[in-house]
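Database export, one record per block. Field names are fixed; values are copied verbatim from the stored entry.
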Amino acid sequence: MKGHLIFLFMLLPVFGWENLYAQQEGQAAIDSIRKELASGSYHDKDDTNKVDLINKLAYFYLSVDPGEGIKYGQQALELATKLDWKKGIAQAKNALGKNYMRKSDNPKALEYYQGALELYKEIGFKKGIATVTSNIGLLYYSQGDIITALAYYSEALKIHEAIENKEGIGIACDNIGDIYKNQGNYQKALEYYLYALKMFRETGKKVGVALVTGDIGIVYRYQKNYTMAIGSIRQTIKMDEELGDRLGVAWGLTNTGIVYLSVFRDTSATSIQDIDSSGFVVEKYMPLKGGKAAMLDKAIDYLQAGLTKGKEILADDIMQACYQNLAECYRLKGDYKQAMEYYKEYAIIKDSVFSKANSEKMVQIEYESTRLSDSLKTSEAKKIADLKLRHERNYTYLGIAGIALLLGFSFFIIKERGKSEKLLLNILPSKVAAELKANGVTKARLFDNVTVLFTDFVNFTKAGEQMSPQQLIDELHACFKAFDEITEKYNIEKIKTIGDAYLAVAGLPVADPGHAENIIMAAIEINKFMNERLIQVGGDSNRSTFEIRIGVHSGSVVAGIVGVKKFAYDIWGDAVNIAARMEQNSESGKINISQATYELVKDKLDCIYKGAIETKNKGMVSMYFVNVPGI
């Protein structure tokens, strides 16, 4: 649920909770302000009220188009500067900081935040100081610098408490609660969330009450207090329905389904009371022994409802969470066919989100691949036609010639069968290929101890623009061919390439105790190969290659074959997602590994702590760079 909470809190500090629904009001709110700006009341160019309205536009555009938000923020800054109105200048810089942060330009955002903070301190406006301090904390939080974020949040809380700003206290406490929740300190998180809830109730801020109540429900789930978790989340759903927050309702339904799934999977759970949105017990399950199947059915019902709502509002993160958890529900029910269907949907939407940035650069690759495929088909058709014509001409020559032809044809079949066997082994792991040949089908399997490697080329589009389509394909082929040889050397299973990304996994389909170490060694060699290739082609003006980022994570995956035509062996699960996040948060020429992988290799490899990032379903995940001489 916090996936949309972090964004919502970015809107709070300057104009209050009534503007929290800028995203929902959208263009209507923007049009209203623009109409007011165009009215005769604001004909004076040196009007501080006009600065306020332009600043409001900058904040409303934050949720619609941050580029426009920056444009209006600059207008407000210029006008406030002409007026020498320091408070207006600070507000404009804060608005610019928010919009630049929304565009992921954190250095620019921090520059404007610091400018706003200095001005607020100069004029002694404590509420503004607390507001910007909190925003700087959020910036560091988004970068995974939890320690710095907590320091800024705590400082903001002190200021809000000093000026008795209950609304600000609630916001600061919710932010601090988020940090403790993601660190696994659930009791501390609950203390801050409950304090925030008290403040929001006292000020009558219904949006704040709804958001924090949902956070409390999630913490109760982590604490295995499932009765309170369900009660809290249902109260959130009711409040979100009253507020018209469709995103909040969708997350509430999804999280309720996840709670019931957690109950089913928790072997220590012996009873649960089903509480409605008012806090009354409506159903009672005690004991759960023999009746746990009801929990799984309820999980499916709520996840289906969340999925429906998510589709209505085109919320990819909600749909992804629902597909993933529905797949797990049906796997636990033993309905592997249905589980695979949901895993496929989950993989599609996950890849869709991941591949959106790569879509343009894939067009040329797909075109070249199709053209190559068509050429091969044409060539084969011609060979068949020529062979048929020769057979017709020589039809009368039977006898010894016919026997010789039969022997030759038999040899051809054997040879082609060998080619088919080799092709199948290029597509599938040998164990999976043997199962497919023997049974005609293969079963999807869960592998608990594997390590996933994800690589991606830095500035691929820019580098590709300097090459012809054929040069681009040739360079990708040269790189991926080397990667294939390296991964094969370390008994690693290549899964697929996604544009310029390369996905591989160690520890399946045959278990490998050294899966993490093997992946790291392969990653080191891949990185070395790319460094050497950069030097090799650097002196040739007609050639170019790429820099590389590498990410690694260890965990569990589900593996199996999807499709009937052009089928592929693929893997799904959080381990794949987190490996991709490790790659996205890596740097050129670096190998970024997760905490889980670090724990497996820390005694054998030197690693440097990089920070932490928030991930869906796993909370905060620490990251480490593998320290390799020369890298």
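Remark 1: The domain at 224-334 is CATH 1.25.40.10 (Serine Threonine Protein Phosphatase 5, Tetratricopeptide repeat).
Remark 2: The first helix runs from residue 2 to 9.
End of record.
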